[in-house]
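Lab notebook, bench 4. We co-purified these components, and the gel suggests they stay together. Before we commit to crystallization screens, I want a quick structural picture of the whole thing.
Request: model the full complex, all chains together.
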Amino acid sequence: MEDLAPPLLLSLEIRRALDNGEHVRTGIKKFLESKKSDFHSILLRWLMLVERGEKVSHLLTEIKSPHRRALLDLLEKSFKGQSISSPLRDLEEEIGSAAQAEVDAYISRLPFIALVPLLLFQFPAFMLLLIGPILLEAVSQMGGM
Amino acid sequence: MRQGFLIVIDEILLQMSSGKSFRESMVQTRDRQQNTLRIFLDDLVLSVVFSQQPKTWSNDLFFQEIVAEFQLIDRSNAKSLDRLRSFRKKIRTQLDFRRKSGQILSQIRMQSIVMSIFYGVLLFYVVCSQGFQNNSRLILTSVFCFASGSFWIFRIGKAYKWKI
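Here is the predicted assembly.
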């Protein structure tokens, strides 16, 4: 969560590459050099297939996220010589708003997520310290009766 | 640092829009800065001016990324404004996302730190009043439980896997 969503980061890198007059490949390479994510391995496999001119449809079915699939679909077009600058901008907007929605949903769940370690570990730890010695003493006194 | 650097890029872009070169804009922007950012910009200007000399200016990944980008912009005569704008957009997007998730995460971590202080005080009291030897198992179990909970809380958000 502290880093950008992988497809958003990839689209930003590609946009930068295109704005710099470079090929999409440069943007992909830059993305692959960044902090590793679960998207890296599949992107690497996809890139190898595309560079060899092989079909990537079976690989795309492995990807659950429709945003990642759409992005790779679009990138494939650029390897076939089509201009993707304008559709990439639209897709970047879409991915950006989807990432924003995901962050919002996660943030609304965060207080409840933080309750789990509090209730499972920290609260019992307090209780152990507060009533543990008293309980132990009571048990030993009952045993001595 | 990132927020401060964003303002620096804004200023460089403004100066470039008024017709100055990238290097000139960078130097003038640096001269207007103070404190930590000034030291950072001093290093940045040097790394761009002496880009032919291979040298690692800092171990910080963010700084290295900026240096690489600024060296590229400095070397390219054309589209330097667009390049810098693209770079700013990337940093701004990263900052927006970090700010949003960071605010609530830091609140949760702060709560955990306050809890740890209370726990420390209670632990000290129990050890002083009841003794450690008699209750060693109990105390160690409690400390382990609390440390596990704190570790979990500090890991929240770090191991998040994006769904999109």
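Chain B touches chain A through 50 residues (CB under 8 Å). Worth comparing against the SEC data before the next meeting. The two ends of chain B are 28 Å apart (CA to CA).
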